[in-house]
Structures are given as structure tokens and as C-alpha cells.
Specification:
The chain is mainly alpha-helical. It has seven helices and five strands. A hairpin with an 8-residue loop joins strand 4 (about 115-120) and strand 5. Helix 2 packs across helix 7.
């Protein structure tokens, strides 16, 4: 999953904003996150009834972007649930990065957003791999929820 596919610079957002979007893609976005989202190319909106005395209840990500993030999150939820617990523990401990090659078969699954990225520890044969950036963010977010 690249920034181009998601429609804005996901990788340019801070982990705090990325985790907030994973928590509730359709939810209210705190006002302090709006400049960062807009700067990254994301679109946000706020709506309220003009006749009401109160202003908008907050900003939200555009529906198309929120729907896409929700869809990707659903896929990752299925992937995460299907992972054997011992593999989930390894992935969590390594935050989706530098995962030993021996776990690659258990991790590869059609629901894994972005797939795996091959890395190497300097030898001819790759000894580690990493998850794509969106998947790494999901792993960190999921780990923070289980604490």
C-alpha cells in the first residue's frame, strides 16, 4: 500500500495521527491533527446546521478516504486474527520490521495490506523481512490496544 494508493501522504503523518485514523477512520479528528492531514494531501470537512447555536462537532476525513482506511483496516484485522499467537508476538516485538525469515510463510496472507518487503542482514540470502508501512502502523496500533 503506497501513499499514492491511499490518496495522500500516509507515511508523512505522525504515528499519533495514523493511529487515530486507524482507531476510527470515520470518527472526529482532533483539531490539532487537521493541519498535518491537510498538509499531507488529506481532505477533511466539518459540517453543522447554520441555524444551530453550536458549531461543528469536529473535523472528519473525507468519506472516500475514511472508507478506504476502514477497508484496509478490516483486511488487516482478519490478517491479525489469523496469525498464530507466537508469530503475532514476534511481529509485535519487532513492530513489523526485521522479522526473521522463518516466519514469512505464516505471515503472507491475502489480507496483509502491502505484503512483505525483503531486507537483508548483509549476507547473500535475506535473513529478515519487513511489513509494508501501512501494515507496520497497524501492528503498532493493534499492540497498543492490547496493552
Amino acid at each position: 500500500m503506497s501513499d499514492k494508493e491511499i490518496g495522500f501522504a500516509w507515511s508523512g503523518l505522525s504515528p499519533t495521527v495514523r493511529h487515530a485514523l486507524l482507531e476510527d477512520p470515520h470518527g472526529v479528528i482532533p483539531a490539532e491533527y487537521v493541519p498535518e492531514l491537510v498538509h499531507s494531501g488529506g481532505s477533511v470537512y466539518a459540517s453543522y446546521w447554520v441555524a444551530s447555536e453550536e458549531g461543528p462537532d469536529g473535523f472528519r476525513l473525507s468519506p472516500s478516504k475514511a472508507d478506504l482506511i476502514a477497508l484496509l483496516k478490516e483486511k488487516m484485522d482478519r490478517w491479525w486474527t489469523d496469525l498464530p499467537e507466537h508469530v503475532r508476538n514476534v511481529v509485535t516485538a519487532r513492530k513489523g520490521r526485521k522479522i526473521p525469515q522463518e516466519h514469512k510463510g505464516a505471515i503472507q496472507n491475502p489480507n496483509l495490506v502491502g505484503g512483505v518487503l525483503q531486507t537483508s542482514a548483509g549476507g547473500a540470502e535475506p535473513t529478515y523481512f519487513a511489513l509494508a508501512p501501512f501494515a507496520c502502523d497497524y501492528v503498532e496500533w493493534a499492540a497498543s490496544r492490547s496493552q
